[in-house]
Structures are given as C-alpha cells and as structure tokens.
Fold these 4 entries.
Entry 1:
Amino acid sequence: MSQRTLELVIGVDLAGTKAILNRFLPANVEIDDLTKQAVAISKRYIENHNLPVKEGVVELLSHLKARGTSIGLATTTFTERALANLQRSELAGYFQAVIGGDQVARGKPHPDIYLKALEALRAEPGDSLAFEDSDYGIKAAFAAGLRVIHIPDIKRIDEVNRVLVHREYATLLDFRDDIAV
C-alpha cells in the first residue's frame, strides 16, 4: 500500500480503517490479519523507540496546566492503549479526561467522542478548543461545537475542512507563544 492510501485512514476508527483498506487488498488477504500485524508492529516500534511526541506538546501542556486549564484527550485510539502511550511519554498527568474510540459508538468524523470528553470535563463547547491534525478530527470537533485549532502533521487537510478551522499554527509552540502574551 502506498503512503497516499494509508493517509486515507488518518484519524479514522478501527472499523472505518478496515472498511477503507479492505478496498485495496488482494482477495487472498484478510483485513483482520493485516490490522493485527499492523498493531503488533506499531506496538513493537513504540516499545523499542518510544512514542514520538509532537513538538511543543510538553511546553503547551505545562503552560495550560499552570493556568488551571482543564485538558482532555479525545482519540480514536482505544483508551487502554492511549493511557499506556501517555504514561510512556510521561504526559498522563496533564489530562483530566481521556476518551478513547472504544468509549463511543461512532468515531470521528462524528462528534460523539468530543461530546463525551466535554461531558467528562464538565466543559461547554463554546468555551473549548480542539487541537486537530486530521480531516476527520476537524469535522468531529467542529460538529461538537468546539473551535478547532489545526496543527498540521502528516497529511494536508482539504479545503472543505480548512473552512472549519478557527486558527492554524505550524506548531504547538506557536500556539503557546500566541496565548502566553
């Protein structure tokens, strides 16, 4: 599979990923076998090399925590794995709520995961921001009523989703510097 094909599943839950990738597989390859192998490879990589952390995340989280800001994580990753990744990256202590894809019936681009995170934080959508790097995440956050801050990553977002973005910053540090003034 090409990188372009794999970009189609960025931000998509497991069921959606399987549905998308299944269209590209030869008839003799089972999607469940492929996803099990991919999860195993990813897990091994993280165990051996640690999880890459987005530039500026520690500085931004520290700044927000010092300001008394409630912080939640709404991720398509299953909760147990997300929590393990946060522990491994020494970021778990910053979050008051972690909502994984296994906690909602419908994943991104549906707003369910953000609505559940807002509920857990006892926060109002209009008073909250979502940091997103994917088309599906932007759609989900916007549909939940949050202002979306886009931090570009692997895949460029399309123009349809760009209009849903409140602001875009090249890095999390740029956002932190903007609000620190």
Entry 2:
Amino acid sequence: MFRWLEAVKSPSIFVKRTGDAVWTIQGYGLVLFTFASFFPRLSHVQEYAFLCLLLLAVIYAGHEGKPFWIRSPIDLPLMLFIGWVLLTTPFATDPAYSFAEWRKLVAHVLVLYSAALVFRMHANEVLTRRVMGALMIGTIVLCGYAIADFVARGGSWEDRSVRAGAPSSDYNWLTTYLVITIPILITVGFTYRARWKRVAFACAGVLGMLAQTISYTRAGWLGLMAEAIAFGLFTGRRRLIMWMFGAAVVIVIGLITVSQFGYQRQTVSTDNVQFRLIIWENAIHDIALHPFVGVGYGNDTFPKRYGVHPNTGVPAGMHSLFLMVAFGSGLPALGLLMWTLMRLVRVLVCAQSSQSGQGNRLTMLGVAAMVVGVFGAKSFGLHVCW
C-alpha cells in the first residue's frame, strides 16, 4: 500500500508501473473490439472506447520512448489516398457529407495502426490467439443468429424472398463480414495442434459457409470463389483452381436448371444487374466529366446527386467500391487505392515465404486471399458498407 501511494505521488513512477497494466488492457480491448465488431449496433460504443484506448496507447508509447506509428509498406499509397480524398471534399456535391465520410475512412486507418501498435507492444502469440478466438466465437454467434432468424422468418431453399442477415442489419453486412472471416478461419484453424481447437474453427467455417449460402448474395459467393482461386494461385495449387471453376460452372448450371421448375428464380434473375448498370452508366458519365476530383466521396453521394433510381423510384447506392471511389474523388484516388491494395497483397505473399512456421505462412496467405476476395466482391456488386 505504501509503495502504491509513493507511486501515485511521483507521476513518472506511476506511469512506469502502470505501463504493463495499460498494455494488458489494450490487448483485452482489441479482443473485445474484434468480438463486438460482429454486431453493428455496438459500432458507436466501439468508436468511443477505441478513441480512449488509442489516446492511452499514444501517451504510454511516447513515455516509453517507442514510436506509436508502426511503419508499413503501404504507408505511402495509403496516406496519399487519404490526402487526395480530403483534397477533393470541397468539390463535392455535399462537402459536409463527404468530409464526414472522410473522417470515417481516417477512423478505419487509425484502427489498423492502433492494432499494429498493440500487437507490437505484446510481441508474442498470446494476443494473436486471443483475437483469433474472438473471431471464431463471434462468427459462431453471428451465423447462429443469422441461421435461426432465417428459419424463423420462413426462409427456404426454394427462393431468396427471405435472406439471412445480421442482427440490426441486413444480408449485405452479413455477407461482407463472412467474406472477411471465412478465409482467415480456415487458414488459422490449421495452425492449431489441439484437435478441439481445429474442430471449433472448422465448425465456425462451416456455419459461415451455410450463412453465406442462405444470404443468397451472389457477390458474396463470387468473393469466396475469388479467395479460393487467389489462394490457389499464391500456393501454386492448380487443382484447387480447377475445382473452383468446375464448382462455379456446376452451381450456375444447377441454378438455371432449377429456375425452370420455379425454384430460385430471383437468384438467377438479371433484374438486379440491369438496376446496377443504370447506376454505373451515370457514374461513368460523371467520372468522364470530373476525372480528377470527382463529385463527392461516399456511397450516398449518388442519391444526393441523382435522387431516386429512375426505374425503381427508391434511393440507390453505387454497389461498387472502385466506381464509388472514382466517382467520388476522381481517377487519382482510384489509382492510389489500387496501388495500396496491390502492394498489400504483394507484401503478404512475398513475406510469407520467409516465415519459419507453416502456420504463419498460411495465415498471411489467408489474409492476402481475403483482400482479393473482399475487394473483388465489392467491385462487382457487393454493397459498399465500409
């Protein structure tokens, strides 16, 4: 008790003695954020808690004489992308809205670098295992809810009039998160030696695949296929690539066949494609008129500019990340985003070859495949919800 009082009287001693506790809190905070990210309703609570933990991390990293900014190979293109988006906000259709969307982008980047800082300060695999455990448990809870809700609302295999969705959100959010988590769950699951852990990750992966299937989101299916093909290319497994192409052909032919008997007609319908083509045509027209600064960053810029969809009469988003970026902030922003993503994938694929453990190599390849799948799905129709 006396030593504690002495530490409180001396700020430097107090900060030093509480440093370990702060980084422990940061580690558990990252685990809780990982689990809470499965539930959109908790997003605002996450934001406030994250800002508090980030402030503590910066203070204690500075006091310990360690840089709080973790350098990475994507720093340059990522910072240029953020800077260019900010530069174009005064030219936006709604500058206040575009600036608010830019702040969300910055918040996502801060989460990335904050997580990197916490991982570095822990410098062991314990935190990684905990975060992966939270990812696995969160996936099981999310998919369990989605499947139960799908059944309760009368969903079936006959058509997609009822689609599995996330709590307090919809099928777009659910399928986006599953495209992110499934390849990580599969690759990380192989890194564990304990059978029960492998079984737990396998169960999470199976539930994720089932929830992805009954979400009836074609862009989500495309994202998973792109991830499998990317993993096959990264590892030189041609047989996996051929299996994926064969499975895709069988699924497409099967859906078309059963639609002739009255099943899954909405799934094979091209009405949604026509719906998006009209949006993309208007977007490309505006990109041609404003190729450098665009007309405003953010998915809601399109309805702010054009109002409702000319055919459906309802507000419509862009349904394509890359078109949204080019439409909102010009072709330079699109080029910088592509540069960032390609460098990230290249670094992960090249760096995994130098890893000593098979588990680390699989995890890095899984993350690289995830990047390809997520942004591939978002470029071809998956609703932009980041």
Entry 3:
Amino acid sequence: MKKKSLKTKVYKALRHDIVSGKIKGGTRVTEVAVAESLKVSRTPVREALQKLAQERLLISIPKSGFMVEDLSDDDIQDLFTIRTDIEQIAVSKAIQYITAEELKALDDNLEKTKTAIKTDKDLVLTELDAQFHSIIYTAARSRSLFRVCKNFSDMTLKYRHGLNRTASLRSRMLKHHLEIYQALIAKNAESAAQAMADHGKEAKTHLKVVMKKIRSDNFDRDDD
C-alpha cells in the first residue's frame, strides 16, 4: 500500500507539472532527476513515468528517458480537429445508449464545473472537462471508439488546460458542455454533434494565442 501511494503521489506531482505547463514542452525527464527532486527511490518514479507515457503526456526515448511533447501550432490544431471529428461520432452514438445514471453524472459534472469556475480552480476545471467527455465516450458503448477518443483526450489535455486557465473562455466551455448535455437529454443527435463541433471550433480559434502565453511563461504558476 505504501509503495502504491508513493507511486500515486509521484504520478500526480509530475502530471500536475506537465499539464499546468510548469514542465515545458521539449523538456527531458529522467528517473534520476525526478527521484532526486522528489527525494524518493527510482522505482515509483519509473512506474509514474511509464503511466504518463501511456497517457501520451510524455514520450519515451530509448536509453534517454522521457520528454514532454512539444508540438507545433499546426500539429496542435490538427490534433483538435481530429479529436472534434471523433467526438461528434461518439456523442451521436451516445444518444442511443446513454443511461439515466450517466446523464446524472453529466449533470453533477456541470455543477462541479460551475463551482470550479467560481472558485478559480483551474486544474480541477480541466479534470472535470476530461471527465465530462469521458462519460460520453463510455456512453457510446464502443470499446474501440472509447480508446481512440481517450487517446486524443490525453494528447490534448495540457493544451485544454491552457484554454481553461483563460478566464474569458471558462464560461464558454461550460456553455458548450451544457448544450451537449441538453442535446443528449433531448436525444437529438444532430444538435449534439453540432454542439460538439462548436465546442471544438471555439477551442481551435483561441489555441494559438493561448500557446503563445504558455510558451512565454505569462501564466501564473500557482494552480491549486
């Protein structure tokens, strides 16, 4: 149990620093450096790094450790385009299979999102954003589609966090989530797909400006 909790602690610390941008894209991450920094043994660090690589937050480099992915603006735009296209398929399928319990989970998520926005909890907001979409992936009742959606969700997570750290965009994200939720309740596949498309389009519109801020280190680093 102690080993497991230590691995989780290391994983959460590294994940926070990557998603928040504290560890910038292109940075090399090694077991030795992380172990020394966190004052822990290399075993939990190794396990945490491998898990982060599985989530595509790190890239494994043979015999050289890991690196935080550093994509060009065009590559990031491409990621969001593909993710939005796939999520339109997922939400359309979810219309057919989503349960009352899953709709309740989305409703709870929206309420927590409102609280996170009011209390300025940016990292919590990003986790809730990922959770909202994950509920929809599950509701589509397709293992293959879930894996693809989850993969793109993981790859775009730190960029979505950059968007969520922009105060003027938080209410827009909530608005889009609410529209998707309402379309699911109404079982309107066309409206659900359109709401998801609008959600992705808005993110892409602001990505370049947000990425400039992240790269120039203009964001406050004091996430809770």
Entry 4:
Amino acid sequence: MNIEDRDGLERKLARILGRLLAAQMGRLLELLGDPPNISNLPINFWGDAGTEMAGVLRPFLESLYVESAKQMMDNVGIGVDWALVNENAAEWASRHSFELVTGINNTSRNTLQRAVSRYFADGQTIGELTSRLSRSFGPVRAEMIAITEVTRAATEGEREFLAELVSDGVEMIPIWQTSNDERVCPICGPRYNKPIEDGQYPPAHVRCRCWVNHEIAELRQ
C-alpha cells in the first residue's frame, strides 16, 4: 500500500541528507585548500563521514520500516510477532544504511576526483570548483536519494510483515502499483497492477515512488 504522508517523509529525509552533504562539502573544501590537493584529505575522511551519515540515516530508515509494517498490519487486520519485526527492522536498517552510505561516498569521491582534475585541466578558479561540487552535494541529489530510500524502507517493512504472515500460513500476492499517469516511467508502467513474480520490488530505479498492494491468494484466484 502507499505509505501515509509520503511527501512529508521525503522532505524530511531530503533535509537531513541535504545538511549532511552540505557539511561534508564544506569540510572537503576546507581540507583541500586553494589550489585543491586531494592528498590533504585525512585517510579516514570518508570513513568518518560515512559513520556520521549512517548514524543519522539508520534510525530514520528503521522507524519508517516499522511504521510501514504497522500500517500493513492495520490494513490486513492480522497480528504477527512484533518483537521479531522490530528486531529485523533494526538489523535491516543497520545493514542497509551502511550499504547506502558506502554508495553515496563512493559517488562523492569519484565526483571530487573528476572535479579537481577538471579544475587543473581547465584552469578553473576555486569558485568554479565549488560550483561544480555543489551540483553533487546539493539539494537535488539529497532529494533523489530521499525519494528512492523512502520507497525502499516502506517496501521492506511491508515485506517483513508479509514474511511473518507466510510463516503463519497466510499467503498474499504482491501487486505492483504506480500513479498510472503520464509521468510513470517505461520501467514501472508495464508492471502496473500486475503480480510481482520476479522478485523485483520498488524501488525499480532512482526516484521510484511506486508501491505494492497485497491480495489474499484465495481471493485473487
């Protein structure tokens, strides 16, 4: 099902990420110097930045995972072992936040290296370097990540709840849902209102805002 207050959750996570990325860029520019020298960065810079970011993202993702499972439970009207849901939420959020931050930092590191190379190749000023980096450490990227990860955490919370139902002998069929309008992408459009049979759940791509509805297998047949 589509999660409650999706827009608000996306904005909140985008603000969190935006602050973290902006602070990260500020520290980078300060350490790089003028002219910029990547060797000025401490060896533990990206590791420390990742730990800080994961520490902020983990509780947000865990909370959304649990709330999505609760919403699913309210909709279905069947209870599950809630202690296990919370335990799995914490485990998933810890694992995924590490993977997410690793990907974010790898992209940031590569972007920085290309930007500094361009700085010297084109004879740029430090202001031009700052402007180039702002595109990758700014609000557009934060929003892109936020939309994708809100979709992911919500979907994972629902799947956790459904896994508990299956263990109790209740089978439900996941049905892919989109907004079904002109903005739906060619990746998700063909999946609209069809059972998920290939193991691929939202998000199917960056900025994916699809969701999943579920039907009891007996009723679907």
